[in-house]
Amino acid sequence: MDTDPMGADARPPAPARVAIFDTSLRDGEQSPGCSMTAAQKLRFAHALAELGVDTIEAGFPASSRSDLDGCAAIAREVRGAGVATLARCNDGDIDACARALEHAERPRIHVFISTSPLHREHKLGMSRDEVLARAVAGVERARRYVDDVEFSAEDALRTEPDFLVEVCSAAIAAGARTLNIPDTVGYTTPAEIRALFEHLRTHVLDADRAIFSAHCHDDLGLAVANSLAAIEGGARQVECTINGIGERAGNCALEELVMALETRRAWFDATTGVDTRRLVPTSRLLSRLTGMQVQRNKAIVGANAFAHESGIHQHGMLKHRGTYEILRPEAVGWAKSQMIMGRHSGRAALADRLKELGFTLDEAQLNQVFGRFKALTEKKREVFDADLEALAAGLDSGNGIAVGGWRLLRLQVSTGVGEGILPMASVEVCSPDGERHAEAATGDGPVHAIFAALARGTGVHLDVESYHVSSVTTGEDAQGQASLTARIDGEEIAGSATSTDILEASALAWLDIVNRLHRRDAAAARRDSAGETGEAATPGFPTPRPRVATV
Length: 551
Description:
Blueprint: E1 16-17, E2 19-22, H1 24-28, H2 38-51, E3 55-59, H3 65-77, E4 82-88, H4 91-100, E5 107-114, H5 117-124, H6 128-145, E6 149-154, H7 161-174, E7 178-183, H8 190-203, E8 211-216, H9 223-232, E9 237-240, H10 254-263, H11 265-268, E10 270-271, H12 279-290, E11 307-308, H13 311-319, E12 338-339, H14 347-356, H15 363-377, H16 385-392, E13 407-414, E14 424-430, E15 436-442, H17 446-458, E16 463-471, E17 480-488, E18 491-499, H18 502-529
Parallel strand pairs: 1-10, 2-3, 2-9, 3-4, 4-5, 5-6, 6-7, 7-8, 8-9, 11-12
Antiparallel strand pairs: 13-14, 14-15, 16-17, 17-18
Helix pairs in contact: 2-3, 2-12, 3-4, 4-6, 6-7, 7-8, 8-9, 9-10, 13-14, 17-18
């Protein structure tokens, strides 16, 4: 009889715990186009704590008084995550870090010095012995202020392995708890960095007294792959940023690293403390604070990450989502997968979307609508729900505004610059029941004034979270596409419209969201009247129409 050599009560070892060190507010924020005010940095630090990162690198206090004050505010207010600040291995930098971290719950001083031959000669003008002495002195001074000291050997991947072992051993002896091995210029490869971490863990003296950390840049597009390889080599902390922001091509993207570990846990046998459901909201917040948009095809948080247009893919998704998705969109903060209706979409996806909109068509009707849909896709890059409803009703599309929904009849906008001049918009809209409403409002700018006037005219208030305008064609008569995202009672709803006038496109996109709510309510009402179980009317959509005095 076979026996279990581990014993009847034996359990497999728990996955390794990888600490997430987020440097969005330091390495990320100092990159071009990503700067934030002190108030914005504090807001984002709270979001990172809610996300569940282990350590937040708040900034570089010695760089400016404002950065020191910003780091101090984060250290004073943020709880639930450690707060680190960066310092060169000199007394002034380290003392500034100590002042900034005075009220931190879990303070960490992160000291660094360059170690590669290239940096020693051309950046520092120092010998190996001088760099070693400066590293030890920096760690020792930081330990006078805090117990948690991290040491980084800048440009470690281009440093002689024997000298890197010597510096890391000396840093541990001086009191460093974490040894960070940065690929400062994004030069390494997965096999190379894994071998380096294995070498360091074998040869650094008292290596078991410190956590080894990876900090990879994305100059060759390998930051996430290299960070995962470092984990395989024994790294138990990864330094990364939301959306992969950072100097030059950026850093290891936190959301990609975390979801790679989560999705392939059986392979990496490692986990983090991140609440993955907060990844998309945190990504969106960073985009709003910095104004840097996330590319549509970016993994995990890009708009296309869970979007499907190909008819083959859509058909597979309708049969079983696992055919083309390896993780659930809800697990990272998306509401659901999206079936994008366009020229590559098939009949099955069209029928499914029309059913969601409340239309039940027989085979002949579906064939007719599908033919009209294919003809429309030759003219439009993306077909919206409003277009589909118009097709199903046997009518032409009205530029994103559905027949039977709210329609824009008139729009006039005035704006200017100067004392006493307020942007103003007047609108006339037609309600789903045919009632006309004319309203006007002022705002901080012409778009804000338009939205305020539409809110008065429709009686609907939208909490707009993002607004983006882009060109979909070229030339002086280019079509502009306005895209909005609004939150209605916790649910995120998007709207979009195009026009050669971007102000008109903005108004139509706003109404597109309102009409999505209207269509949902109408479809639920049709299901209820047919004796089916349907959704309740969308909270926040007024019936009958109330007046809204302010926006």
